[in-house]
Design brief:
The structure is a single chain. The chain is 45% helix and 22% strand. It contains 10 helices and 16 strands. α1 packs across α2, α1 packs across α3 and α5 runs parallel beside α8.
């Protein structure tokens, strides 16, 4: 199994060569995008490269590896459009990002990244931090990486790294933890031995309600400045949620380590947006449908993988309606944050009861696999 990460390092001394290279790279992306768009349908990267390579090299004076990276990126972008069944449209690229291949057009150590620009290979100092030192210890392999112009006007090197880590089998696991994600509590965890932790979401919920009110006022105005502000608010809200999800996922994995957890159970939330929208009032649909449930789970998954903890996704059906004590299922068992079983009278926090059910389903999966001998066969065929 491979663990991949992106380490963001600030470039301390960007110069005109770097800026001009990024501009020409963007020009090359847009020229290539026009060629592909005029073709009327996606095409393979190699075929596209043959059509645009001479122009990229001779007219834009881009280096050889850049002239190979550009058609690969553009071809991939249009394939994604087709895969997502989006309207066929020409994609425009801004001069905010360019991709480099390790060794061919960049090398790096803890303090310096050497990048191929239009005026040759140049060294740039990077502001490194103690947390990043671990990624320069020789155990990680460097992959194609990017120089990115952030919204703060500074240039950063997004270093992509990869490391192979030993595979673990779920049948070797003995301790489990379920994680229920939501809005009132962003996450609630419960372990096999009934230890739990709550991650409150009240402050974030109030802040997002504030953004919601601002959006309503700006949308009613409809002016150009209002539209610009709407775009700004949207970006700020996404950055807020991403930061919150990073922090919570880090704390969840830390809690799992402290309790010697082998497997973290999560709900398979595929299609959660469509299901949720149909069940909540129109007034609350944006809050529910835009909540970054899946992002939080993804962060938990890769952080857990990095410390040797497995993750497993379970069917979310009835986890919020099932009594953990007697297994009685009823919609009436849950009333907002309260859970009270209509059959046996068991009472608990509703989200904690859900986390306990997720842990139980994860643990059941492990023992079913072991008893039926499916796991080894599945891994053999993988």
């Amino acid at each position: 199994m491979f663990l991949t990460k992106t380490v963001i390092l600030k470039i301390a001394n960007p110069d005109n060569d770097l800026v001009e290279t990024m501009q020409k790279y963007s020009d090359g992306m847009n020229y290539t995008s026009k060629v592909l768009f005029d073709n009327g349908k996606p095409m393979g990267a190699m075929k596209l490269q043959k059509l645009v390579y001479p122009y990229l090299r001779e007219n834009l004076e881009l280096k050889s590896q850049m002239s190979c990276n550009i058609p690969r990126q553009v071809a991939g972008c249009y394939k994604t459009l087709k895969k997502n069944k989006a309207k066929w449209q020409r994609v425009e690229f801004s001069p905010t990002s360019m991709t480099f291949s390790y060794k061919r057009d960049f090398t790096i150590d803890r303090d310096t990244v050497k990048i191929t620009t239009i005026n040759g290979r140049k060294p740039y100092s990077i502001l490194n931090y103690d947390y990043a030192a671990q990624y320069f210890d020789g155990s990680w392999e460097y992959q194609a990486s990017k120089v990115v112009l952030h919204n703060d006007g500074e240039y950063y090197f997004h270093l992509s790294i990869e490391k192979e880590i030993p595979d673990k089998e779920i049948t070797d696991a003995s301790t489990f933890m379920g994680v229920d994600v939501g809005i009132n509590y962003l996450a609630v965890t419960s372990t096999t031995d009934k230890k739990c932790k709550f991650f409150a979401g009240g402050e974030i919920k109030n802040l997002r309600n504030h953004y919601k009110s601002m959006r309503a006022r700006l949308q009613s105005k409809g002016t150009l400045s209002a539209k610009r502000m709407l775009k700004y608010i949207s970006g700020k809200e996404k950055r807020l949620m991403r930061d919150v999800n990073h922090k919570i996922s880090k704390e969840i994995v830390k809690f799992a380590l402290e309790n010697d957890i082998s497997v973290i159970g999560l709900e398979d939330l595929t299609g959660i947006r469509n299901t949720t929208v149909s069940k909540v009032s129109k007034k609350n649909r944006h809050t529910h449908s835009s909540w970054a449930y899946r992002q939080l789970q993804t962060f938990i998954e890769y952080k857990a993988r990095g410390v040797g903890i497995l993750t497993h996704y379970v069917d979310p059906a009835f986890t919020s309606q099932t009594c953990i004590r007697c297994n009685h299922i009823s919609k009436n068992n849950r009333n907002r944050l309260n859970f009270r079983c209509k059959k046996c009278g068991y009472e608990n926090n509703a989200d904690l009861n859900g986390a306990m059910n997720i842990e139980h389903k994860t643990r059941d999966f492990r023992y079913i696999l072991e008893s039926q001998g499916y796991l080894s066969a599945t891994q053999t065929n993988a």
